[in-house]
Amino acid sequence: MEKNWLVIVALLFQIIQTTEAQNGTSSSNSKLKDAYTALQSWKSAITDDPLGVLKTWVGNNVCSYNGVFCGNPQNSTLPTDLVVVGIDLNFGNLQGTLVKQLSLLSDIALIHLNSNRFTGNVPDTFQALQYLAELDLSNNLFSGSFPSVVLSLPGLVYLDLRFNEFSGPIPDSLFNNKRLDAVFLNNNQFVGRIPSSLGNSKASVITFANNNFTGDIPASIGNMGASLKEVLFLNNQLNGCIPEGIGRLTEMKVLDISVNSFTGHLPNSFSCLKQIEVLNLGHNKLSGVLSDTVCSLRSIVNLTVSGNFFSGISPSCKNLSLSGNSIGCDFSANCLPGLNQQKSQPECSLLPSGMNCVQIPLITLLSCG
Q1: Would you give the distance in Å from CA 260 to the centre of its chain?
Q2: How far apart are CA 64 and CA 62, in angstroms?
Q3: Are residues 87 and 181 located together in one domain of the fold?
Q4: CA angle 312, 305, 310 (to 5 degrees)
Q5: Which DSSP string do the residues of 281-333 spell out, in sequence order?
Q6: In a designed cystine with 330, which of 167, 306, 313, 348 is the match (CB 3.0 to 4.6 A)?
Q7: Do 47 and 136 reside in the same domain of the chain?
Q8: Maximum CA pair distance of the chain?
């Protein structure tokens, strides 16, 4: 997935340049003294460093520490006025916990801790990190409830909690943050319904995959409009109908709702997903006709509807199933006449009743083209 956080990347580049230029700067200012206290406290809470990542974390010149980046604070351009503005310890294989003293890094913008062995949760003192824009805790052993302290970070743009052991529900207010552009929640143990506040979000990427979410996709998702480019619901315990409003996501490129229990027919509004490239509806309980609604989408390169109960197919969809086309398709394990690798008649007869969904036309979709 291509990141679009260009401002943050530019900031990090500036941070690195400033750090290199000022590497010998004295730590006499109070904020670097606070940073020394914070980083040494954290170092004491790291119990295993097999790669020697922290071997340079000695002395009071914190700007020389491996993985620590210094730069000018938000309200200053003086070259000698340095603060810690970034920490990147990705792939360090460090074992330990986060400590409350990290809140002393009050000017920090980036914390990247991908692929370590950190445990516990995020200290409540992180609420002091008002400039924090990127928080990447992915591929660790964090546990407990959703780290609600992140909800108090006004500058947060990128939140990555995937591949941890977080559990419980996610808070309704998560999606009220208009600045959040990427939210990765996948591969945890989250439960409960996806909040109806989802539609308030302006994020371009959200992943719910590989958790234990239940209920349906909130109808409010359509309110996200052109902002949402990728959303992954796969491998949860979601059910109900696919909301008609999903057609309002006119800039969507990736939609994956596979391995759930969604029912009913595909909404007509799917025809509005003109930018969709990957559409995975596989392994649900969807039924009805597989029509041009999905098979005529102009940008699609991968279409998966396997493991459902579709019983009718349009000519254009049937053409897609033939070998030699440029689109990757999987129509197997349905009830489609004339196609190979379909369910047996006894299996198709097991389609439960009440599988149809009420199709409510949306006036705003009439001009989707």
Answers
A1: 18
A2: 5
A3: no
A4: 25
A5: --SSEEEEEE-HHHHT-TT-SEEE--SSEEEEE-HHHHHHTSTT-SSEEE--S
A6: 306
A7: yes
A8: 79
pLDDT digits (tens, 9 = 90+) for 322-334: 755 667 899 999 9
CB 217 within 8 A of CB 233: yes
Write the pLDDT tens digit of every residue in 216-255: 999 999 999 999 999 999 999 999 999 999 999 999 999 9
The encoded tokens of residue 91 equal 């792939």
- Establish if 250 belongs to a structural domain: yes
Q: Which domain holds residue 99?
A: 29-158
Tell me, what CATH number does 82's domain have? 3.80.10.10
The pTM score is: 0.89
DSSP category for residue 249: -
Distance CA 41, CA 58 (A): 12
Strands (E), 121-229: 134-136, 141-145, 158-160, 165-168, 182-184, 189-193, 205-207, 212-215
Task: For Cα atoms 316, 320, 322, give the angle at the middle one, nearest 5 degrees.
Answer: 120
List the one residue out of 7, 100, 108, 93 whose CA is nearest residue 62. Answer: 108
